[in-house]
Every structure is written in structure tokens, then in C-alpha cells.
Design brief:
Length: 338
Amino acid sequence: MPNGAHVTNHATSPMAMARARHALMQAGLDSSVPLEAASSVTNEVWLTPQHVVRVNRRPNQRLRREAMLGPVLPAEIGYPMVVSYGGRLGADYLVLRRVPGRPLAHCWPTMSPAERRDAIHQLGAKLRRLHMTPGPADLPRIDAPQMLRGDTLSPVMSLLVALDQVRSLPYVDPGLIDDVENLVFELTPAIEPFESQFLIHGDLTFENILWNGERITAILDFEWARTSPPDVDLDVFLRVCCLPQLHVADAYYEVTRPEDYADVPWWLQEVYPELFAIPRQLDRLRLYSIAYDIRDLTMFPPLAVAEQLHEHHALNRLRGAVTGRSHLDLLDASSGVS
């Protein structure tokens, strides 16, 4: 989540609505149906009574990858049927069949502890199934949020290049980046070899999980999905557990409380213990977190020194990583992650 900002609504302008209606028309659907804007971090998202329209305004065609992935995902995931994909670079779209349910993040504040635990147990079973699914051989590579790759001499090569770029940015303390780089070298052996033939979700937030009051009906938004070690999915997931208010739609910011998420990692561990049993787990998670934050910093360079920025700006998150005050350090070290 860039710079500590929570989920926002990108699909509000008349032009955004026009793009959604054009996508419906191109898909051979009724383009005059009522449209409801939905919250999203990266895309313009609109809901009709029967469909979901997502428009990607960045020139990377992430939705093309998702259109390829959708049909190969196991049925247990509940991923909606892909109706149509198309558009042009900088405005490609994906039209999906709408699945019943509301984002779990929106339901969470009023759910009972028993309902919450059941939902996480269901999620764990679906996540395990996803992590057993081979990735398509022709799936295009993506510039993932964690700047780590299994197809280079070292998994941190891209990260080290980015560290050199960040070191020269205005308002960035080179000494901090030196400390981060030393930590990267120290932690890299924990993730080697960084290889997998199986899929991860890549953006596992409660906004991307649908809940109908009794069960999880779908896991959505696979645009960052790729083949990678399964515990990479814990990076974003644990950020959500520690700082959930930064990962919810605007309307739910005030009612989202970290204490309501405190037991979530351990509930996931109950049903998916092997995800938490990888050697040097905490070291791996620290490296994933650094890689995520460095990419964030390259995309959103600081406009002031760290002390004048939001406490959860990427620059301050990196300071927390090297001083032992990151979101991972909010977790109970005696439970689950070690």
C-alpha cells in the first residue's frame, strides 16, 4: 500500500464511467445499465447488477495476465468467470461475472470472533489450494511489488539496483540506504533458492476476499499473481493484519481497528501451518518487506525528509525495518512467525 494511504475510489469521473460503458459495449453487454463505483487501489472498478468492470489506466496490461490466469485457477478459489478482455495500452479492461458477497474488509468490523476465525480457516484452505496450482508456462513476467526474482543469478539483483537508485533521491539519507543494503546482504541466504512453479496471489488483502455472511465466495484481483515461494503471500497479508486501516476503503477507515485483526495470523497458522514452518521465516519476511518498500519508494519518491512524512511512508517503513520497529515487530514473536 503506497505511502500508508488506504484504499481509494479511482472510478468516479465521467471519463471513468465512459470507459466502463465502452468496455461493456465491447463485451456485447448492455452499456446503459446502472453503474456503481467500487473502491480499488490500482484500477477503475465499476459494478453492474451482473458484472464487474475493471479498467487499468497504467501502460502495463496487468489485466491481460489476469484474463489468462482466471480460467486456470482451481474452482475452490471461486474466481469469477471472465466475460471479456480488451482495450488498448493505458486503458485495457476486464469484464467479469459478478459473484455474490461483500469484501471481507467491509464485513469484518461487525463479525463475531467465531465468524472471523471461520472465515480465516476457509481462507487458509483456499490459499493452500492456490499454492498447489502450477503457473501457466506462457504467463508474462510482471514487475512484482516485491523486487525479487528467481530467474536471475541472485534473487536480490533487481533490489540492489533499486537501492542504488533510491540512495541518490532527494530527502533520502544515504546512510539509511547503506543500512538497508547491509540488511539485504545479511538476509538473502534465507530466501535462496528463490524458485517455485506454483502460484501465489500477490495482493492478499481483505478487500480482495468476498464474504456472503457464512462463507468466502471468491478470492479476487489476481493481477499480481505469479509463481513464487508461497510465503511471499504473507508479506501483504501481515501488513493488513498489523495495520488494517491502511488497507480498507475510505468508508471503512474509521471502523477498522488493529485489535480486531490481532488473532488473524495465528488463525491462519491453525489451518495452514506449513506456510509458517519455512526455515528462517522472519528473516524471509523482513526481506520481502524491504523489497516491497524499496519498490514503493522508487514509485513515490519522498517530497520531504522522513520526519516530515506520514509515519507509514515507505521511507519511514524502511527506517523501522533497520531499527526493529517495522510492522513485523508488532507481531508476537512467540507465536506463529519466528
